[in-house]
Specification:
The chain is of the alpha+beta class and 364 residues long. Helix content is 24%, strand content 26%. The chain has 9 helices and 17 strands.
Length: 364
Amino acid sequence: MTSLHSRPVTVRPRPELQALMQTDRTLDPGITLPASWYHDPKIWQRERWPIFGSNWVHVAYDHQLRNTGDYVTENLAGWPIFIRRKDDGTLSAFYNMCPHRAGPIVFEGEGCSKNVVCKYHGWAFNADGKLLSARDFGAEAPDNMDLTAIQVGSWRGMVFVCLNPAIAPLHEWLGKFPGEVAGVPLESYRFHSKSVRHVACNWKTYGDNFLEGYHLPTTHPAMSRDADALNYQVLYKGDPRWNIHTMPPRDESTFGVFGYFWPTFAFDVFPGGFAVERWLPRGHTHSDLIFEYFFDDNAEGVEDIVKFSEEVADEDARMCEHVQRNLDAGNYATGVLSPKWEYPLAVFHRMIRDAIGPVDCDER
């Protein structure tokens, strides 16, 4: 099959982002995105390809794909996809769509399938997506009836996909970010547990929430007692796509270091472990907030750490749903951003604007 999109799209941050990323917090970061951008389905359609189709998005883990034929599915911003382990040990990924009549190759979730066969009409493909057999079709199948492959890559046990074939491979795309977390022994940690919250908010609402520490003393009082939230910092290292968050620890603090990578990937570092925190859009009205926890075999207090993190996640989800209802209500247009605390939102919002391009007045 031919590509669904012929024009490559990449995020090209504007030069003024560099000023917002500096340490001078007297700069005015300006106003927020319009409220309509958080609930308008037209904006959602404008966002899908340049933001979620043309960036690497974390969707799975190597431990879910240990054996030949193991697969994991995902609905990536409305595009059903699946990742599969081939018999040579490498990963392949495709749209979960048979070119015959759009049937699924695998059903949702994860499992193992030794053969790549459409569940609907039984068309068979090889491990690289090439059509092998159009079962009882009654004629020779047309040309170009292969599965549509997508880019897939693994970094430190985490599996990412990118739908746009024009985007650089994963390890190149990550830039200098891997060096920033090289000291975190991710490979020595084992998977512990996973939680998923179906949150009634736009993906940007949760992104805004993650990117600032201004709300911690009022939304997360226990977290603010655990570490010094009044000295929370978001640090940029020259690339507007990612940042590192720090809070000065108190005695035996659970929280202290967090990280973010555009568009919806984050991590939290704990004593003896870490959590991946990601929020995947389910249309323009909901997001799945996913936490996956990993710990060293000798880590202490694991259940208490997870419980504490889950309580914070509940607080965030509740607040974001309230904010979303107010954004939807129609009596709020734009807000203002704190130069001390909310400059990361100005960077985030500029990247969104740059990604989707000019918007007509009726879409603002």
